[in-house]
Design a protein that fits this description.
about 260 residues, alpha/beta, six-stranded mixed β-sheet, three-stranded mixed β-sheet, Enoyl-CoA_hydra_C, Enoyl-CoA hydratase family protein, Enoyl-CoA_Hydratase/Isomerase, Enoyl-CoA_hydra/iso
């Protein structure tokens, strides 16, 4: 059986590529399984500083594989495995960047929203098509709703209307939408910036961004002070401070960017 998801590493960037163009990179059982395996490998590989989620073919991801969903009982639906996959991306200690040259639909938009940074061609399109086939965009709402502004979220979840990359950026789904010919350069701009950050600092910052904050400001300051002081005094923090004083790049920066 041909592999549907590929993984390669270069200059600290682990690229995971969806390669199932025959069904528009739909989230089939095989694709889900391979995607999870490559995410595990990327997170366990010290040579990987960040992850780029990319695709071959004209479509980034069409959502769940509806052929596999037909006639299956509720406990046999592939969507049952999807929350763990989205959470794996959302909680990854390494930043994850989505790179879209083409459309995303339904569960594919959930993948985009789970990533820390999402960049697409302006011509890429998006839609929450679930209601139009009589299902609910429930699972993906967990990652999508924290990204989207409230009014567009209600509009687009309820209507299933297709929208382009420019609007996706305006409503918070994307960080950037650029002309198709500039997509590689825009993704590289983000990956270059991300590899300048300390690996432990990036992981801790990701965890901080998604953590529930105390109701009391004094408690919040106390927790954040402890976190800050720990990293100032830590090995990575001390290396960064020393590198700044010595006007050089820290040791964690890939050789290509020094």
């Amino acid at each position: 059986m041909d592999e549907l998801v590929h993984f390669d590493v270069a200059d600290g960037v682990g690229t995971i590529t969806l390669d199932s163009p025959h069904n528009r990179n739909a989230l089939s059982a095989q694709l889900r399984r391979e995607l999870k395996g490559h995410l595990d490998a990327a997170m366990d590989d010290d040579a990987v500083r960040l992850i780029v989620l990319a695709h071959t073919g004209k479509v980034f991801c069409a959502g769940m594989d509806l052929k596999e969903s037909r006639s299956a009982d509720s406990d046999q639906q592939g969507v049952n495995e999807f929350p763990a996959l989205l959470e794996q991306i959302w909680t990854s200690p390494k930043p994850v960047v989505a790179k879209l040259a083409g459309p995303a639909r339904a569960g594919g938009v959930g993948l985009v929203a789970a990533c820390d940074i999402a960049v697409a061609a302006e011509t890429a399109t998006f839609a929450f098509t679930e209601v139009r086939i009589g299902v609910v965009p429930a699972v993906i709402s967990v990652t999508v709703l924290p990204r989207l502004h409230s009014r567009p979220a209600h509009e687009l979840f309820l209507t299933g209307e297709t929208f382009d990359g420019k609007r996706a950026a305006e409503i918070g789904l994307l960080n950037s939408a650029v002309p198709a010919e500039d997509l590689d350069a825009e993704v590289r701009r983000y990956t270059d910036m991300l590899t300048l950050g300390g690996p432990h600092a990036l992981a801790a910052t990701k965890a901080m961004l998604s953590s529930q904050r105390p109701d009391s400001m004094s408690e919040d300051f106390a927790e954040m002070l402890q976190l800050s002081a720990k990293h100032f005094a830590g090995e990575e923090g001390q290396e960064g401070i020393t590198a700044f004083a010595e006007k050089r790049k820290p040791r964690w920066v890939p050789e290509a960017l020094r």
